[in-house]
Amino acid sequence: MGDTQDSLDHEFANYTTCHGASRIANAKNRPHMALWTLVFLAAFGLCTWQVVDRFQNYFQYRTGTEINVELENELDFPAVTICNFNRIRASGVSINDQLYLGAAFYVPSLVDDPEALNAYLNGVDWDGFGASTALLEDYAGYTLQNGFVLDNDTLLQCYWRGRPCYAENFTHVFTTYGNCWTFNGDKNSSVKQTTPGAGNGLKLTLDILTDEYTEDPVTGYLEYGLVFQVHDQHEPPRPELVGTAVAPGSHTYASTFQTHYKNEPSPWGQCDPAKGQSHLTYYDTYTLPGCLLECRAKLVEPCGCRPMYYPGDLDYCSPLNLSSCVLPTLATFLKNNNEFDACSCTVPCEYTSYHTTVSYAGYPSPLAASYLETHFNVSSGYMSQNLVHLDLYYHELMSTTSEQFKAVTPSGLISDVGGQFGFFIGVSVITMFEFFEYLVMKFLLFACHSEMEPEKEKSDREKSAGENTVAPETYQKVNDPTELSTMAQTQEGLAKVQVS
Question: What is the DSSP letter of 265?
């Protein structure tokens, strides 16, 4: 058995493609064998170190980013949402409504102190304000009617690619600023910009109606002007997070750039391919803002209502319910949780983002003011306090794609590992099969030896027993008295001969 095993080992060492094995097996003397053994072990150790390093590098899940820039003949124009810092116009609302809203909007400043919040809510005589039924029972409808309205009176000028546009080209949407208005909000009918530069996109002049502001200096906004957000048509606007403020009395140049992002799924990136078109309930496309808004809407369901800027099927909250339940609930949740993790909201695997660069110029010039006084029928002083001139456009018709990719792919890992094996010890896929064949043959030899060993032992035992056993006829002669007497006489005669 030992000779067979040695023969198999020697045969494998000679025919395997693994470098060094044949050198060791066919060494002429012991020093020569020791030298090649050391060389082989050193190469094997270096190979193992490099292979482990390659696997560690792969399981770090590192990524790289490839940026491609392409010039286009035309680009889809983004959606543009415009809001006013003033949520409720003074005209048409009573002083009682304004006082009630001021008291209700004061609540968010107390959400971090539950005891003070409860004391405040219980200490105010809410019925004593005498607020209108429309405000108490239909706050969303009340805001739609009495909030910032984009119509032919407030939209003094509007041009899209040099052609007139109108208030009908804007769609209404609720945000934390109340009424907001979106240009190019139709997902199924996007407009395109074909010429870069100022004046070739959306250009408009708005009257923000400063005299209509009702924002309380303690509970409301201190600013006056507009907030606009440039966003994808499938993405719900959140101007309170990423909006850009515009002051009246200035010409605002808003140059926007389009970037299309492609992200890798986990564990390389953070996107989830399962979150596709039908993942969200109230939005037809998965977006990060849409996911967060739906998550917040579910969190406030115990309040029995929802803010008018949240999606859902519940009725809209009254100002008091909004301030006493919804906002404290959200504040507690955000204080104790990471919103992205708790809501399981990840970045989309593909989405389009718009980055806007803003610059300003004085508006209007003295000469232009003389012309516009007649054209708009307002004074130059009124224009400096109320008119916002916004020019939003693509600076260049250039599409940028930012694509995330795996720094080490599975095929790259295989190539790295194979390269290390091949460089140090000459091991390939064929060599792996040689090792497999060698191990199978070793196993078969061992199994055969294990089966033959009991048979050999049995045979040896039977042979040994046969040599020590007396034949039956001999046994009979030994026990016969006549034979015993003859044998005794023979032995006695032999003894006498030896004595003589």
Answer: B
Closest C-alpha among 151, 255, 129, 260 to residue 203: 255
Number of H helices, E strands in the chain: 18, 14
Which residues, at least 6 apart from 224, have a Cβ–Cβ distance to it below 8 Å?
85, 86, 208, 210, 213, 248
Q: What is the pLDDT of residue 475?
A: 42
* Rounded distance between C-alpha atoms, residue 477 and residue 170, angstroms: 131
What is the pLDDT, as a whole number, of residue 86? 93
Pairing of β 178-183 and β 79-84: antiparallel
How buried is residue 146: exposed, middle or buried, by Cβ count under 10 Å (0-12/13-18/19+)? Answer: buried
Q: Give the whole-angstrom CA distance, residue 173 versus residue 159.
A: 21
Which residues, in sequence order, are CB contacts of 343 under 8 Å at separation 6+?
Answer: 291, 292, 295, 296
How many residues does the structure list for the chain?
Answer: 500
Residues 6 or more apart from 7 whose CB is under 8 A from it? none
Q: What is the DSSP letter of 280?
A: S
Q: Would you say the pTM of this structure is higher than 0.90?
A: no
Residues 6 or more apart in contact with residue 129 via CB below 8 angstroms = 96, 99, 100, 103
The rounded distance, in Å, linking the Cα atoms of 148 and 174 is 11
The pLDDT, as a whole number, for residue 490 is 46
Residue 155's pLDDT is what? Answer: 96
pLDDT of residue 498: 43
Burial class (CB in 10 A: 0-12, 13-18, 19+), 163: exposed
Q: What is the DSSP letter of 147?
A: S
Whole-angstrom distance, CA of residue 139 vs CA of residue 306: 11
Residue 187: its pLDDT value, please?
82
- 300 close to 376: Cβ distance less than 8 angstroms: no
Helices 481-499 and 472-479, interaxial angle, to 10°?
80
Tens of pLDDT, residue by residue over 450-459, are: 666 665 566 6
Distance CA 153, CA 57 (A): 63
Which segments in the chain show pLDDT lower than 70?
Answer: 1-6, 8-10, 12, 15, 107-112, 450-500
- CA 470, CA 485: separation in Å to the nearest integer? 20
- The conformation of residue 323, written as its DSSP 8-state character, comes to I
Q: Which residues contact 151 (CB under 8 A, 6 or more apart)?
A: 167
- State the Cα–Cα distance between residues 164 and 116, nearest whole angstrom: 53
**Which of 261, 206, 253, 260 has its CA nearest to residue 356?**
253
Helix, strand, coil share of the chain (percent; to 5): 45, 20, 30
CA angle 156, 162, 164 (to 5 degrees): 40
In this structure, which amino acid lies at residue 211?
D
